[in-house]
Design goal:
Number of strands: 22
Largest sheet: 6 strands, mixed, barrel
Strand order of the largest sheet: 3-4-9-6-8-7
Strand content: 15-25%
Shape: globular
Number of domains: 4
Radius of gyration: 34 Å
Distance between the termini: 44 Å
Number of helices: 26
Length: about 850
């Protein structure tokens, strides 16, 4: 206890250094903890179910670039009946629904349609009532029941224990509440926080846009399937057994479908892949690469902090050699001295670690400001138990990293020699100098890696900002409504859309109104095979398509290249028309002659006349290449063409106005309510803001990496400054004697700069090698450049060299101006 009190007094006796340790570690550990918290929530956190390690995700082996991971409903049912190698097989499909209950306004909610085996496979028990089971899906549409998530039960219904048996209106359908899911369970899809669970067989009743033919089709992949392994059976064994069953099912299917001989081998060669599913299912675009790299960057910053503080403690320890030598001569053992020095370090490290928690929480809250709302709804912005454990481990690791080397170095005393050196005011030695130099080299190398990564991401973000989207995002407001999700029939839905459009056009300042089934820039798309009439091709081509209203292209300022846009007559007539983009015309070799040609979409489908060509634009993705694309006019009725069957019961509106967008954002909910008071308005924002949300991950990575690079570079500069200032102060007599012997200040400064140049060159060389490797990892996250961009590497070296020069100038100048008489006075 005496040693602890003594260590505490010693650690706080010099207020400058403990304060530096506390501040640096609070920032370093806090930043790393914030990134780790995001990383853990999205990629590491196991599902709150018994034995999550036995869960596996089942997906088709990736072929022809298709790695969506979904299976057909029919295949899932076949596997459920035949996969005896598994302890359980379950399927799920997320969907957005409108939820209405007595006495409360309607709201948009996240639901998951689940098979009867879902909760059994997860081995979950309800908080209240019962969960969905096999008895709840005898036939399609026949079991209108729902299970609430614990969070929705608490927030919407106040945890009412008498909730069972109440009826909710979900997408216009009455469903009876039968239970409440466990408290921490919100589904197994990463990025989807489920609020409601409904039987899989109710999917077609709740989503009228879901085609009925998908029930029996093996090619309509929409279900995400997972399973539980049997005890003692490995993943490899189960995979082999499951693929044996799958091969048999494929052979039976080939016979039923009469697959041609030339395609039979490829058809039968398909396989299923099993991957660990204990952390859930689903991918958030770019999350794995971005968060992994950011965590590595944050750890590198924390390591830089530790190296810098170790260097400062080495200098402090060198100045205490006399004190420690006296303690040694009075009988203190080396182990006792090292323990005391470690305790002196541990006190400020512990304080810094505790203060890192509010720093981490602040950084988490700041980070979510740069992410889209649909993404942040699934995140917790407070430090959880995993963050507390991470901070505890970081405190232990930082104490060792910061204090061990200085403690061992300082605690190795020779009383007579140490007292002699102390009396001569020349503490330290060449060994300590080499260690401090090596630590400076490490800081320079770390800083260069971070500057390179920050430069790469900044240049990538700049490249994205320079993309010509091919459409005008300013002065446009967008929002989505889904009347059919609220139970409105086709006629009522058409009337609602017409009413909203009429109300918008009557609003002062509105200059254009248009709708689309698929929102632009959303990375979502419909795709269809097609052929150009009159062309002979063995296989049809594929193109993305969207269903849009007249004035769509004019409202979004998409240039018309040839022909015309859609008219009201096109939307209401019996003849089918399409507008294609330039990329489709180029791929088909049509050019401007595309106008007047016909597209065909399958046997028996009416042909569709091309009436216009529009320029290429970012219809689907801000960063993606412009694919071949065609558009068909939105029709409120008369869907006699199969291409329209994919139109969902929701539309996204685009409103261009001469007034401020904020004015429209305020009035649109009231305008929609005047048409249908119970219709929720979702995704209400400006088109510019919507476009920016699509690159929010890129922006967050750039901001954080740049901030970390600035912090690490500042630490490197402080470390270099501190080492030089201390080292040159110990050599004051030498510099004074050199001045007395005729050396000019310029020559003395040059001597110092040569020493700095050696350290910097070694650090930069090491940093460049590491940065090239990190650049290869970052390649997949960059747009318009590679991780080995020479201009970025050269700029990073130049910036770091300038920082090193500035950090070393003041100590070098001060040492070069030491007066000869000052040095002789100490001789």
């Amino acid at each position: 206890m005496h040693e602890v009190r003594n260590a505490l007094r010693q650690s706080l006796r010099r207020p400058g250094l403990p304060a530096a340790i506390i501040v640096m570690l609070a920032i370093g550990i806090g930043a790393t903890t914030a990134i780790f918290s995001l990383f853990h929530q999205l990629l590491l956190r196991p599902l709150p179910v018994p034995e999550p390690e036995r869960l596996v995700n089942i997906a088709p082996a990736a072929t022809d670039g298709d790695s969506a991971g979904a299976l057909s409903y029919s295949l899932f049912r076949d596997l459920e009946k035949n996969a005896s190698a598994l302890a359980g097989v379950a399927a799920q499909m997320p969907l957005s629904v409108n939820l209405a209950s007595e006495g409360a306004p309607a709201l948009e909610a996240r639901a998951v349609a689940v098979s009867g085996s879902y909760f059994q496979t997860l081995s979950l028990t309800p908080v209240l009532g019962r969960l969905i089971g096999p008895q709840d899906e005898p036939r399609i549409d026949e079991t209108p029941v729902v299970v609430l998530s614990h969070g929705l039960w608490q927030s919407r219904f106040g945890g009412d224990p008498n909730i069972l048996g109440r009826v909710l209106t979900i997408n216009g359908r009455p469903l009876t509440i039968i239970g409440v899911a466990p408290e921490r369970f919100a589904g197994t899809m990463r990025g989807v926080r489920a609020q409601l669970f409904v039987p899989l067989t109710m999917l077609w009743a709740l989503d009228e846009g879901m085609p009925r033919e998908a029930i029996d089709s093996h090619s309509f992949s929409m279900m995400f399937v997972f399973a539980r392994l049997r005890p003692g059976v490995s993943l490899e064994q189960t995979s082999a057994q499951l693929n044996t069953v799958y091969a048999r099912l494929q052979r039976e299917l080939a016979l039923r479908l009469s697959v041609p001989a030339d395609r039979l081998e490829r058809f039968l060669d398909q396989r299923l892949e099993l991957e660990p599913g204990g952390r859930g299912r689903g991918t958030i675009p770019g999350a794995t690469q971005s968060l992994t790299l950011l965590l590595a960057v944050a750890l590198l910053v924390l390591l830089t902090v530790c190296v810098n503080l170790a260097n400062l403690l080495l200098a402090r320890g060198a100045s205490r050699t006399g004190e420690l030598a006296i303690r040694d001569s009075l009988g203190a053992t080396r182990g006792r001295l090292v323990a005391q020095l470690m305790l002196e370090t541990a006190v400020p490290v512990l304080i810094g670690g505790l203060l890192s928690l509010p720093v981490a929480a602040l950084l988490l809250r700041a980070s979510v400001l740069f992410l889209p709302s649909w993404f942040t709804r699934t995140l917790a912005v407070q430090a959880g138990s995993e963050a507390l454990l991470f901070v505890a481990l970081a405190i232990v690791a930082a104490t060792i990293a910061v204090g061990l080397l200085p403690a061992l170095r300082t605690g190795r005393t020779n009383p007579a020699g140490a007292l002699k050196r102390h009396a001569a005011q020349a503490p330290g030695g060449s060994g300590a100098e080499r260690i401090r130099g090596a630590l400076v080299v490490a800081q320079i190398a770390f800083s260069l890696v971070l500057i390179v990564l920050a430069g790469l991401f900044a240049k990538s973000l700049d490249n994205i900002a320079r993309i010509d989207l091919g459409l005008e995002v300013d002065s446009v407001v967008t929002f989505t409504v889904a009347p059919r999700a609220g139970g409105s029939g086709a006629d009522r839905t058409a009337a609602i859309y017409a009413g909203i459009e009429e109300a918008l056009r009557a609003e002062p300042g509105v200059t254009g109104v248009a709708v689309a089934t698929i929102p632009v820039l959303s990375s979502r798309f419909f795709q269809s095979q097609y052929m150009v009439e009159g062309q002979s091709r063995e296989e049809p081509d594929a193109a993305n398509f969207n269903i849009v209203s007249p004035e769509f292209f004019a409202t979004l300022s998409i240039p018309l290249v040839a022909g015309r846009e859609f008219t009201r007559a096109d939307a209401n007539g019996a003849v089918s028309f399409v507008v294609v983009n330039e990329q489709l015309a180029r791929e088909q070799g049509l050019g401007a002659d595309a106008v007047g040609r016909y597209l065909m979409f399958g046997p028996g489908a009416p042909r569709m006349e091309i009436v216009g060509i529009v320029s290429d634009a970012a219809y689907n993705d801000v960063k993606g290449e412009n694919p071949p694309m065609f558009f068909v006019p939105y029709k409120s009725s008369g869907y006699d063409n199969p291409i329209y069957n994919l139109a969902a019961g929701s539309l996204t509106f685009y409103v261009r106005a001469s007034v401020e967008p904020q004015t429209l954002l305020r009035v649109i909910p009231d305008l929609v309510a005047s048409v249908d008071r119970g219709l929720p308005v979702t995704a209400l924002t400006t088109l510019r803001r919507y476009a920016e949300e699509q690159i929010s991950v890129d922006r967050l990575v750039t901001i954080l990496s740049a901030s970390f690079a600035v912090l690490a570079t500042l630490l490197a500069a402080i470390g270099l400054y501190g080492v030089l200032a201390y080292s040159l102060a110990q050599r004051a007599r030498e510099f004074g004697l050199r001045r007395a012997l005729g050396a000019t200040p310029d020559k003395l400064r040059a001597m110092v700069f040569r020493r700095v140049a050696v350290l910097a060159s070694i650090g930069i060389a090491i940093g460049l090698a590491v940065a090239l490797g990190a650049g290869r990892i970052a390649d997949a996250m960059l747009y318009g450049l590679t991780g080995r961009d020479p201009l970025t590497l050269a700029a990073a070296v130049a910036v770091l060299a300038a920082v090193v020069l500035v950090a070393s100038y003041v100590p070098a100048r001060r040492a070069s101006l030491v007066a000869p008489m000052e040095a002789l006075r100490h001789e």
